[in-house]
Records
---
Amino acid sequence: MYEGLLSILHKEVKPALGCTGPTSVSYAASVAKDAVGGEVKSVKVFVDRDTYKNSIAVGIPGTSEMGVVIAAALGAVCGDSTLGLEVLKNVTKEDEEKAKTLAEHNVSLEINWDIEGVGLYIDVWVDTDLGTGHAIVAKTHTNVILIEANNEIKYKVKEDEIKNILDETKDIIAGYTVKDFYDFATKMPIEELNFLKESINMNKELAETGLEKGSGKGFGEAFLKLQKTQSAFFKAKAYTAAASDARMAGENLPAMSCASSGNVGITASLPLYIVALENGINEDILIRALSLSFLMTIYIKNHIGRLSAMCACAIAASIGVGTGTVILFEGSFSQVEGAVKNIVGSIGGVLCDGAKLGCALKLSSAVGIAIESAYMALDNTVIASGDGIVCDTADETIKMLGRIARLGMIETDKVLCKEIIQREQNSKRYN
């Protein structure tokens, strides 16, 4: 059981450069281009509504641009598909100018409104002087299910496997429980978890860049000014917001992502580092707290969906932080369950209205609720079972939350995406 959970952490906690919405489009374009090689002539992109919504209002690292069209162009022109979520790591100003020219004249974009139940779905065709490359990325941001070169299949997931691969309810993590995660976090040999330290180092550098440069709207800097004493509570909110400020503004630094999201990875890790630092908690306990936070975050995202009308940072990562905070103070499993109930009972159902600069404020709010909820759980103050969507156990509560997100918010997601996309197309603010 422990080896399975360790494998999940290694797979899901990875560096990601830039917002993973447009990054996934760049990645798909780079895979399609690499299938044939040559000089790019044109790009055709089909994306699901949520990927589009999550991509239009965030900066592209290494450039001054925003939007899906430029992301596709950059992926085709200079993307390195071998780098996964760091596909644009080596972009240059010359590459940016070349991609901008391509985007202005030879990149077409279409939103697929009918994709349901498979998470992310990106279908890219790239024409070059050597032919046509075609790639489909589905469910997660680097999960390639088809590669073609000049109508010849180079790679394809078998038809009898595709349903299970794209069905999130069949994911391995769905077979575990919150108690499994707690046991893993508290009993796994610490040397097996030490790789998680890199999530703190990477996301801390992003936060410090946001604070120093006043990236984005400067929400992180603003939080530090709210309280001169810079308590752990406000400092955790500030660092999380600052990292989001920098990332959403397109600073050329990676974040350690979790479950294919950089902002989720930031939210699930940085607050625990600050709380541990401010309270003199040793590194081994911090790493154990990180392991629980990441596993809980992945678990929640599995229930609500990789792409959802429900904000993964506000609900999945906040539950990760809340339960991780309980571990920092060596709380019991009962108190871990209490933190889950407090968070779901207070902010369950927060909407995801796309990746953007304002995410910094939403992330910091989620962090505040998470830490407060953990402190209350440690004091055995917990929302009662049967109160709203809070159930008898943490697992039952999470399952209900998942059903609401997956079944009850489908129309919400459609209306939300339609309203945002139509508004932005009318304003011509983004590509």
---
Amino acid sequence: MTADTKTKKSNTTYKVVLPFYLYAGLAFATATTLLFTSSDALRSHFFQPKLLAITHTMALGWGTMIILGASYQLLPVLTQRRLYSVKLAGLSFVLAALAIPLLVYAFYTFDLGWPAITGGSGVVLAVSCYLINVFGTVGKKENIHAVFCATAAGWLLLTTLTGLALIIDFTSPFLPKGALAYLPLHAHIGIAGWFLGLIVGVASRLIPMFLISKYTNERLLQTIFWLLNGGLLLFLLLFFGEAELAYYAFPIACLAVALALFGYYCYRCYHLRLRRRTDAPVRISLASVVMMLAPLFLLAAIITGSLAGSPDSRLVLVYGFFIFFGWITAIILGMTFKTLPFIVWNKTYHRRAAAAQPPNPKDLGSDQLFSVMILSWLAGLLIVLAGIGCRSHLLLRSGSAFLIATAFFYNLNIWKIIAHKPSDHERHHQ
């Protein structure tokens, strides 16, 4: 299918999609800066205002915003249907863009009154717009990738509603066991239901597409879907049933099997690829699939430590940091530079005359900037993890500085792509 054919099947405009990418890049820069200035917070307990602010900047401003933007572009491709509402997509951006800074400010200052409630409510409304758009676009389409997206959107709404309930409980208590007791529920619905579910659903379509792979196995993807969502539902039953910690091994096992099967799916796609040369963004995306297993091992270690009566707070910090600055950031760094160049290329060249020879979408960005970005991200990730492990101020600051550099190179490269203009020769033939 040509780029021009895809455009005819999609009513999504780049004017709706690109702001999400730009906003996410700025949120990533903000989060890394906050990490640098608040690095000492990583040497103590995980529940504190500055870490809450950093976590929600990464989860909402970085991860969720870029996924929302990419979803609006990719949903018509996944479903072969037009986006339900471009206006709702724009409204979801405006609501989230205004609400997220307010919520982050509330956490940073630990003002859980009207700023936090207003910010949390704005996020819920933005996600509601997204949910309506997803279900309106998917409709009755029996497509496993679309089902993944719709289910993940439902988990996202539940995550944000739970988060808003926790905020309200801090000032007007109503939850039976208090807000802190429900933090694991809020966190794991978001991580496993939203991020993991959406990433697996979309990546299982994009990775074969980028590799030009002939491998397909819908039955395997359906098995992965039920293992992921069944494991999460089992987690909810155990949580509300106040089960012993040891029983949580069962939902962890479900997720582990699902991820192992997804890894096998990606391996088969890679093995049966027609495009023998794999570019750097796809390699990073494939590496992020392997990285998915690390949080499960960390979670098992945390539960084991708790059962032994000696839980280590550093493991919890490593767990949270690795999820947002490691796994989720890896998939975003890889997929951004596969999806964004095509969006901008399509905007610029889809009406070109046949005589014009446009550049390849991958040439809109800089390979050098991408390579330096990945090296600085990997250095920052490993150094900060080491700093958490030995509670070293120097390592935490040094690693955070590398992550700031990562955000700088990321933003520089996406601006380079978005600002791309056709040459005089190309304009003459359009």
---
Amino acid sequence: MKRPNLKPQVTIVICTYSRANMVGQTLLSLKQLTGIDQAEVILVDNNSPDNTAEVVSQAIEQLKNTVNIRYVFEPRQGLSVARNTGIDVSNGSIIAFLDDDAIPAIGWLSNIREAFDKYPEAAAIGGSIKPDFEISRPEWLVKGLELPYGIIDLGKQVRQYPRRLHPFGCNCAIRRKILNELRFPEWLGRKGQSLLSGEETWLFGQIRKRGQKLYYIPDMKISHFIPVNRLSPEWIKKRYYYQGVSNALEGKGLPALIRLIAELALRRVYIAFTSLSVKAPSKRLVRDCRLESIRGSVETLRSRGAAPIHE
């Protein structure tokens, strides 16, 4: 008698570092997902110093016979490393990524499956991300500062991502055939408490260079927790600084360096020109964040011995 094919269509990869107080809630929320019995979940513990392993073990016990969860320990620090480890041990033809502080909507998984079936030309997809603030949303957190918090709403229609946007790692799914050739760059991305990023921009940029498409799926919804320690002007300016560092580290080779230097110069001129009319505190914060991003890039390029850029 021929045995049924038990290979899951979708693997959900959740990477965690020192978030024992959050990851258990995320794992338990998976029970509600439509079609979760046909998926596998890989929890990659990226060398957490807290009791993450114990919390995950308890969640696995609570969800046995309901959600298929595998715990994997990755001692090498780095979010990109952890994600690549999750890919290595996965079995699905679609790899979906969810953050350890995110709660997916009931139809999240079924919408991922349906989107890849309906849009065979899509190499990767992403969805809407609603913020779950630990405290009230600050007045200074205006639209222009939402992206670093992963707040995404591109409307109610399926569409390709615009040129300067791409799926966010806390809510995205990628075909395995893409990840057989490309992986997250391990010189970029979070490492422990570092705010280094850029790994998603690099990966989705490579996918686009191959002529492949990225689709926004509005019903692929999650709620993403934003803790109080990130809700300050000081934190968001630091986040922009490290975005600048990431931008400087992202490109390799002389052409990429020349493009970045030209872009930094143009951005500085634009900010200087538009700053003349900036009066509102929130707009000044947006300006300061953009300047911090430039400073991060400039200081990183100088430390790497690149051609000097006048500030």
---
Amino acid sequence: MITTRGHALETLAGIDTLVFDKTGTLTEGQLSLSQVHPLGDLSVQRALALAAALERGSEHPLARAISAQAEAPPPVERLQATPGCGVSGEIDGVTYRVGTLAFVCELSGVDTAEAPVATPGTSPIYLGSAEGLLALLELSDRLRTDARATVAGLQALGIEVRLFSGDDPAAVTRVGEQLGIAQARGALLPADKLAGLRELQDQGHTVAMVGDGVNDAPVLSQAHVSIAMASGVELARNSADMILQSNRLGHLLDAVKQSRATLRIVRQNIGWALGYNLVALPVAAAGLLTPWLAALGMSLSSLLVVLNALRLLRGEKKASVPHREAGVSPLSPVADNDSRSG
């Protein structure tokens, strides 16, 4: 874990609520296209080509998964991304949209209730034009192998874990159930995530946010302490107070434990130093303590403080053993265009 701002370590020790993004954070972010369902006269190949043309240039994992399966997408004009919703553009004089159901249906005025429902556990992306819905694309992703253990570990420390995502609510709820996260909210725009985090802060919670995408940048900046995945986009990393360099959620749990241990040791050392001086100084001033004995006492006091601080190295070594392959200790101090889901 790399810290980029001075307050991060101390603040991380005091959090009582942690909010996760989904895609690329709790999941691996390596989405794959599982099914393409044409809803009109388009073939599967044509629907995929149109969607890939619109997604061209986007850094979002959904866009990369679609583009990887398409062959020779047609040229597109007037390409425009709407954060949290999708992308629109003109192909052969026709305006198309790809993205969330509400965003795509807005172009044609089709009732969202008439749209087909995606397979449970997949992330649905819709393609449409002014004529209506044209295709449903289903993408799948895998949870990170250490996601469940990390969430359970955070909850065991008394930290409330929540999930804020722009993805389909059904998919978000499913992930929440798999990981034991009771508060899992989907279909959130960047502004909705920001409002949800501010609501938690107004209730008196000290909140940490973990994310990786463009749509996470505002909420990362608002959180008391924020952590970005190293695999995330540059904007998210620049907005974060800490960067999870190894991309392993287990290191996040280690960092919380280590930050709490560090703060506890600091308080112990300050308490000891204050207590020692409150006793030793009046005794020395009264002439009841010889200079050599006072110097010895001060040296022993300093040695005790140092030895107490060295306990942190033992704790860090234990925390680092399960993650040795990553080559990163839990705490190492150092001085997209489209964002539909997360």
